[in-house]
Amino acid sequence: MPETVIGVAGLAVLLSARLLYRWIAGRTQVQLTRLRQQGTSERIRTLPPGSVVTERRTGEELRIEIGMAGGEGRD
Fold first, then answer.
1. What pTM does this model have?
2. Can you give the residue range of the structural domain that contains 34?
3. Model pLDDT for residues 13-69, shown as the tens digit of each residue
4. Pair 33, 19: CB distance under 8 Å
5. How far is it, in rounded angstroms, from Cα 41 to Cα 46?
6. Among the four 3, 6, 19, 33, which has the fewest Cβ within 10 Å?
């Protein structure tokens, strides 16, 4: 009986540790993505109309074209 309790308790600790690890890894990934996007947004805000920004990262490409306010060009 004590061996069974110890085994179940050990299994519960292992599962809890694994769950905590997955949560921390997921949260870290979200934070890194948020910081990367925030940096891109800050750079974009400083660019003049007509600018084009292309960022390439592993497995993705981001292309942003900065236009005029209201979507219309100036005469």
1. 0.58
2. 2-71
3. 999 999 999 999 999 999 998 998 888 888 888 888 888 888 888 888 888 888 876
4. no
5. 9
6. 3
Cα separation values, 61 from 30, 53, 57, 74, Å:
18, 10, 6, 29
Question: Distance between CA atoms of 22 and 14, rounded to whole angstroms?
Answer: 12
58 CB-near residues (< 8 Å, 6+ apart) = none
Q: Vertex 16, ends 11 and 18: CA angle to 5°?
A: 95
DSSP H helices in 46-63: none
CB 43 within 8 Å of CB 64: no
Domain count, the chain: 1
